[in-house]
Amino acid sequence: MAETAEFFQPGYAAGAGRQIGLLWEMVRTPLIVPVLNLCVYMCLAMSIMVFLERLYMGVVIVLVKMFWKKPEKRYKWEPMAEDVESGNADFPVVLVQIPMFNEKEVYKISIGAACNLSWPADKLVIQVLDDSTDLYIKDLVEKECLRWASKGVDIRYQIRETRGGYKAGALKEGLKHDYAKACEYVVIFDADFRPEPDFLRRAVPFLIHNPDIALVQARWRFVNANECLLTRMQEMSLDYHFKVEQEVGSSTHAFFGFNGTGGIWRVAAIEEAGGWKDRTTVEDMDLAVRAGLKGWKFLYLGDLQVKSELPSTFKAFRFQQHRWSCGPANLFRKMVFDIAMNKKVTLYKKFYVIYSFFFVRKLIAHMFTFIFYCVVLPLTVLVPEVDVPKWGAIYIPCIITVLNSVGTPRSFHLLFFWVLFENVMSFHRTKATFIGLLEAKRANEWVVTEKLGDALKNKNKTAAPKKSLSKLLGDRILPQELGFALFLFFCGCYDFIHGKNNYFIYLFLQVITFTISGFGYMGTIVPSS
Question: Which of 70, 271, 330, 452 has its CA 20 to 30 A from that of 297?
Answer without folding.
Answer: 330
